[in-house]
């Protein structure tokens, strides 16, 4: 699918999409709870739908309504192959959970997920009693024999998602477990995991994010949980407001564990007018200037911040570029490639991305199948001088299926 985005002024109020990060964790916890759980303000993006399908494959009953999802949990596999779509969290979280069945289960995925590494899962699960093998560190991944618990070491430098899966599954293991973690990135995503577990009655001991102790033999209690607004998706709306007008985004929790709430700090650094209230963020374009920001713990902010930086006078430096390689695309390379087509000055030097304020123009853009690239290019097009054609524009459905509709409601011209 192609989308054509025209230079536009935007203004209005929009509700943030529901957080797929919280949603997928809530789906997994609901699967593990014997009884009926209700998820309010659900996300129905592709990644969330993939998690629901996997939960059904593992035995859950899932009923989707417009304003809620009702899940009756209990592991009783209805299939031996689970397709996680293109969701990295789904594959890394549900692999340990699938090992609770004690049966041979194959987990696979589509598109870019086939090339994303799952290395590290084999060694850790092996130490916890599971027979597991992958395709040389890639999908598909096969588990058999029962997750028993024990002691394991994992590397958290690439992703915290596998740790989330272990913390979800190990409370149901027979034995107590200790997980030692080296160089954990995106710690606040583990805070999200621990918060969801707490809501379902599970206790985990966190010792400085370096060691986690999990008692086996626990039980998940059914819960009612409301999914908060997604700071990752809202970041694009807020950057759009800073570039091309004035936007208010509702449904965002200022005290959220989501690391991408740091977008507020970056917007203030660049000179945008930001007003943060209890449940709404107001953003207005101002005299934007170059900024420096460390996105190591929130790498998903690189695409919206890149789109913003081209409209900031002078040079902007965004740290943490080393974390961009294993996303839906090689995201650092994709940002350089596509924004240069629009006339942008951007480069990566070691761990930082350097962007100079640039006059962007129309171009034909390849989304690289990356939802955040498609949204970033659409946002950047608002302040440019020509039409931006986005190839593969439908990939936004992975995380924010209403993105184009929301932009149009704010006044953006998108066809």
Low-confidence stretches: none
| Tertiary shape | globular
- What's the β-strand tally? 23
Mean pLDDT: 96
Radius of gyration of CA atoms, rounded to a whole number: 21 Å
Secondary structure tally, helices: 12
- Determine the N-to-C terminus distance: 11 Å
Which structural class matches the secondary elements? alpha/beta
Proportion in β-strands: 25-35%
- How many strands, what sense, and barrel or not for the largest sheet? 4 strands, mixed
Taking strands numbered 1, 2, ... along the chain, how are they ordered across the largest sheet? 2-15-17-16
What percent of residues adopt helix (DSSP H or I)? 25-40%
Task: Report on this structure.
Helices cover 30% and strands 26% of the residues. The protein contains 12 helices and 23 strands. The strands form 6 sheets. A 4-stranded mixed β-sheet has the order 2-15-17-16. Strands 4-5-3-14 form a 4-stranded mixed β-sheet, covered by helices on one side. The protein has a 4-stranded mixed β-sheet with strand order 6-7-9-8. Helix 9 runs parallel beside helix 11 (371-381).
